[in-house]
């Protein structure tokens, strides 16, 4: 814990003030009653306590893409595999309380140093989406993290990228009717827009709505166009999955031989208000167009590995000038919501071989974790740097632990943070001047108790209503057969 007096002072031996990576020495920060940084001044090293001297302050992290999975997928048996067969496995998930699920997910992120997150909401029951949104809004306030809630627009291709009748042909007779009916119960555009209007009443300082057309293959062209117009009119951001897998790329090429990203641009979707997640299977002309339009791309390295999606070309994105953020996608490599480790994974996987393997400039990682991620969540980079007048969204790390074995006269602060920092090194997290994590634990909620309750309730729910594992296995087999025969590459081109 850093020092704090009645005037709300923070003190630390080191400060990473911005994504540029300049490290300040012993610093005192004064936080005003409005939750912003009122003053910032250098102080003498000898004025620090040992605990303060061993602390490192930096802007809080931003998670550019997540799903709020308090109940992790491996916990209910959805094994890591290719996305297309993993999606049917999500039917194993037992019903849990939406506030409990969200509070646990957000609490874990906060304890990992994340002060802002894009929450792309997956409904447990589409009929109560508004109630689920209210639960997430409440959890955001309770935990204290800044949440951009992606309101899902999902109105076509509920099971595969293409004709449900073709999929049904690979299933036993008794399963076909349910598959053919799957598209009939999807929320239409007007119903969803009306619900979105009602959900605006749930917004507060830590909870804002974004348009979330789940992905182009899962959203009707007229819905995509309507969202583009709505965003241009009201300035709200849009968040969308894009070209996550090779099969999605094949679908896109078959349906849009004139250029998939150009088609989306024609619908009015590509702008600096848009964030696209994954973007693994982009082509050079796609990357150039994203850069020209100012689109943010959220790289989700762990998820892409666990769901066998591939590795995005981060070097090409950065070279083109695309704004790149980083996200956990609810699928961290070690299933632990450790955003600091996620940054390290992305940094190592995308080492530039052209520079003899020295790797990306660490400032590129910091820009993604601080500036690009924050822009994606909040529409502004305000608070992505520690500066007078900025929101006091500040992460405090135990640098003494990070550098305990250092033998250099002065340790390389950035190298140690990028190369070693983990959630366990988080001492404190402030959002808007409010301490939401202290001594490594959430302040507003009892996270261990909520995790215990979530696990217990999920076990009870699973026992009361076990999943139909045979039906899931049959669906996975049918899905594999559907893509194996190339059914996703037929069906004609969507209109512009």
Q: End-to-end distance, in Å? A: 56 Å
Per DSSP, the total helix count is: 19
**In total, how many beta strands?**
18
Mean pLDDT: 94
Helix content: 25-40%
Strand % is 15-25%
Q: Low-confidence parts, pLDDT < 50 over ≥5 residues?
A: 1-7
C-alpha-based Rg, rounded = 23 Å
Structural class: alpha/beta
- What shape does the CA trace take? globular
Strand order of the largest sheet: 3-2-6-15-16-17-18
Largest sheet: 7 strands, mixed
Structure, explained:
By secondary structure, the chain is α/β, with parallel strands linked by helices. It has 19 helices and 18 strands. The chain has helices at 50-53, 83-89, 98-111, 129-143, 164-168, 173-181, 189-199, 221-234, 246-255, 260-266, 284-293, 301-306, 314-320, 339-349, 362-378, 399-402, 413-420, 447-464, 469-484, and strands spanning 9-12, 14-16, 23-24, 27-31, 37-42, 55-59, 61-66, 114-120, 146-153, 207-213, 238-242, 274-278, 296-299, 323-326, 394-398, 426-431, 434-438, 441-442. A seven-stranded mixed sheet has the order 3-2-6-15-16-17-18. A four-stranded parallel sheet has the order 7-8-9-10, with helices on both faces. A four-stranded parallel sheet has the order 11-12-13-14. Strand 17 (434-438) and strand 18 form a beta hairpin. Helix 2 runs antiparallel to helix 19 (469-484), helix 3 packs parallel to helix 4 (129-143) and helix 14 (339-349) packs across helix 17. The longest helix is centred in the last third of the chain and has 18 residues, at 447-464. It is globular, with a radius of gyration of 23 Å. The termini are far apart.
């Amino acid at each position: 814990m850093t020092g704090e007096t009645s005037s709300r002072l923070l003190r630390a031996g080191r400060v990473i003030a911005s994504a540029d990576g300049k490290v300040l020495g012993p610093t005192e920060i004064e936080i005003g009653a409005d939750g912003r940084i009122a003053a910032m001044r250098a102080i003498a090293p000898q004025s620090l306590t040992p605990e303060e001297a061993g602390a490192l302050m930096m802007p809080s992290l931003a998670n550019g893409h997540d799903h709020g999975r308090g109940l992790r997928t491996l916990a209910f048996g959805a094994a890591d595999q290719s996305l297309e067969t993993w999606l049917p496995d999500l039917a194993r998930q037992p019903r849990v309380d939406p506030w409990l699920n969200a509070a646990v997910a957000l609490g874990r992120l906060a304890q990992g140093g994340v002060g802002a997150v894009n929450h792309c909401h997956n409904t447990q029951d589409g009929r109560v989406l508004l109630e689920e949104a209210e639960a997430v809004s409440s959890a955001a306030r309770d935990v204290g993290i800044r949440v951009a809630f992606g309101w899902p627009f999902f109105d076509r291709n509920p099971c595969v990228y293409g004709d449900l009748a073709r999929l049904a042909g690979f299933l036993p007779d008794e399963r076909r009717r349910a598959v053919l009916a799957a598209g009939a119960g999807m929320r239409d555009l007007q119903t969803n827009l009306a619900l979105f209007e009602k959900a605006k009443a749930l917004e507060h300082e830590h909870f804002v709505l974004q348009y979330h057309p789940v992905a182009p293959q899962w959203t009707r062209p007229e819905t995509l166009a309507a969202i583009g117009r709505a965003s241009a009119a009201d300035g709200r951001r849009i968040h969308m999955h894009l070209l996550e897998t090779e099969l999605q790329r094949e679908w896109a090429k078959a349906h849009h031989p004139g250029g998939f990203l150009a088609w989306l641009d024609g619908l009015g979707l590509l702008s600096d208000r848009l964030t696209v997640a994954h973007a693994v299977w982009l082509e050079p002309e796609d990357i150039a167009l994203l850069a020209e339009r100012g689109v943010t791309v959220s790289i989700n390295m762990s998820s892409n590995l666990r769901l066998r999606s591939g590795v995005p070309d981060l070097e090409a994105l950065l070279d083109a000038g695309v704004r790149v953020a980083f996200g956990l996608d609810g699928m961290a490599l070690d299933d632990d919501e450790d955003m600091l480790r996620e940054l390290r994974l992305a940094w190592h996987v995308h080492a530039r071989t052209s520079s003899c393997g020295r790797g990306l400039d660490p400032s590129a990682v910091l820009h993604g974790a601080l500036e690009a991620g924050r822009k994606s969540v909040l529409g502004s980079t305000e608070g992505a740097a520690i500066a007078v007048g900025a929101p006091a969204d500040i992460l405090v790390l135990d640098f003494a632990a990070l550098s305990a074995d250092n033998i250099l006269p002065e340790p390389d602060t950035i190298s140690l943070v990028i190369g070693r920092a983990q959630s366990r090194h988080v001492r404190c997290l402030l959002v808007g001047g409010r301490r939401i994590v202290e001594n490594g634990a959430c302040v507003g909620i009892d996270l261990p108790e909520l995790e215990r309750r979530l696990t217990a309730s999920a076990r009870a729910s699973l026992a009361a209503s076990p999943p139909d594992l045979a039906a899931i296995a049959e669906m996975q087999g049918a899905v594999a057969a559907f893509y194996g025969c190339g059914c996703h590459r037929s069906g004609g081109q969507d209109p512009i």
